[in-house]
């Protein structure tokens, strides 16, 4: 059975809510999923999973949140070749670099060899209404991307 992990940072609860919605849809597909706050996660554990999802809000003018700094730095040297990955996060359009943390984490995962299988999911502030469905679809699409690619 494939193993997936979601690692997220959330200050206001918005990104955590996104993680909950995404995890709900992934679990509906029968996937073994671990969900953890970035402060409780060990970056080296990522190598043990087949699918990796990172979630973070964007701080200030386009930075990773402080909670992600150590995790991000300790990802250096990981070999994520062959791992499927995607990134999501809550964003605030009042800042010029909308959702930059999502882009930063996608680049990091790519640099470590992971295959980014979905465009980053950026949601304005909290996932309500259509955004709830986008989060659930993101989880289902992540699972289906993996299933399609490994079936060949």
TrEMBL record:
<dbReference type="InterPro" id="IPR050619">
    <property type="entry name" value="Flavodoxin"/>
</dbReference>
<dbReference type="InterPro" id="IPR010087">
    <property type="entry name" value="Flav_short"/>
</dbReference>
<dbReference type="InterPro" id="IPR008254">
    <property type="entry name" value="Flavodoxin/NO_synth"/>
</dbReference>
<dbReference type="InterPro" id="IPR029039">
    <property type="entry name" value="Flavoprotein-like_sf"/>
</dbReference>
<keyword id="KW-0813">Transport</keyword>
<dbReference type="Pfam" id="PF00258">
    <property type="entry name" value="Flavodoxin_1"/>
</dbReference>
<dbReference type="GO" id="GO:0016651">
    <property type="term" value="F:oxidoreductase activity, acting on NAD(P)H"/>
</dbReference>
<dbReference type="GO" id="GO:0010181">
    <property type="term" value="F:FMN binding"/>
</dbReference>
<keyword id="KW-0288">FMN</keyword>
<keyword id="KW-0285">Flavoprotein</keyword>
<comment type="similarity">
    <text>Belongs to the flavodoxin family.</text>
</comment>
<protein>
    <recommendedName>
        <fullName>Flavodoxin</fullName>
    </recommendedName>
</protein>
<dbReference type="GO" id="GO:0009055">
    <property type="term" value="F:electron transfer activity"/>
</dbReference>
<dbReference type="InterPro" id="IPR001226">
    <property type="entry name" value="Flavodoxin_CS"/>
</dbReference>
<feature type="domain" description="Flavodoxin-like">
    <location>
        <begin position="4"/>
        <end position="143"/>
    </location>
</feature>
<keyword id="KW-0249">Electron transport</keyword>
<comment type="function">
    <text>Low-potential electron donor to a number of redox enzymes.</text>
</comment>
């Amino acid at each position: 059975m494939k193993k997936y992990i979601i690692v997220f940072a959330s200050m206001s609860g918005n990104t955590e809510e996104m993680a909950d919605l995404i995890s709900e849809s992934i679990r509906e597909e029968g996937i073994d999923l671990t969900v953890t706050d970035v402060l409780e996660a060990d970056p080296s554990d990522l190598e043990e999973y087949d699918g990796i999802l990172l979630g973070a809000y964007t701080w200030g003018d386009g930075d990773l949140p402080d909670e992600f700094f150590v995790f991000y730095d300790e990802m250096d040297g990981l070999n994520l070749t062959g791992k499927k990955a995607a990134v999501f996060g809550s964003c605030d359009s009042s800042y010029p670099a909308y959702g930059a943390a999502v882009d930063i984490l996608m680049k990091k995962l790519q640099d470590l060899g992971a295959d980014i299988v979905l465009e980053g999911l950026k949601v304005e502030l909290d996932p309500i209404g259509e955004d709830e469905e986008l989060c659930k679809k993101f989880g289902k699409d992540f699972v289906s991307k993996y299933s399609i690619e490994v079936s060949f």
